[in-house]
Amino acid sequence: MQQTFVDARPASATARDPVVISAPHGGDIIPLCFSDRISGCTECDWNSWELAEAAWEAFDRPALVGLRLSRLKLDANRARCFACDDEAAFSVHDEYHSAVEAACAAAVERFGWCLHLDLHGQSHRPATELGYLLTSEDFLMEDAALDAAPRESSVELLLSGPPESGRRRSALTRGATSLGALLEARGFPCVPSPRTPAPVEAAALEAARKAKADIGAAHGPPAEEAAAATYFWGGYTVRRLGVPASIPPHCGPLPEPARGGWARRVASVSLETAWAVREGA
User: Model-level pTM?
Assistant: First the structure.
């Protein structure tokens, strides 16, 4: 019997919310027949899969897709051409993203729209980082400038509506009714949020750049000098679903029918959860 490395669970018949949960970095299966990756971060986001399952239960079992193959073998949150160093792992990458696509498409068909939550884990700060594809520099802007910035967030769908609705990008991502505000009201510190509207201070960002520190944690957890300037603002999966037109042809964008169809009704958020959240998953 062939081993499967993708745990894909369709939404239950009783699921009430248009939610799809994905967890690409919590896998612990390390088959010897797959070559190790030789570049990029290979560390597991410990307990992120367990957290995904807990969230899945709390949401009354919406769609859930998790990669059980270790990140040492495959990083499914990177474009296919950069995700692994083993031909056999490419098929797992395809299977994982096909399952996420199918789950999002089904949510849109059932509810009219979809909120995709991509669960990760980080240990460089005691707050969960919410990624909307807006950068550290974007969040250093005043609200009016952030609202008018040309960069498209991964939740632009939620801004749609008549002008009188007053929906603004700044309010959606760090305002009183943002996801960060709602989570903080339940005891989970977050950035961005009303309390911490900018995930990284300008001085910390400038110091890290002068030191040429790896603020993207490309090779593992950020070093001490980079931690204060590190903010994970969303990776490949969130970009592919939330802003599909931004994925170049060689990096495996969504098929054109999806981009012109159900993907127009998807909002996607990356959650880089703090260890305290995952520890008690």
Answer: 0.94
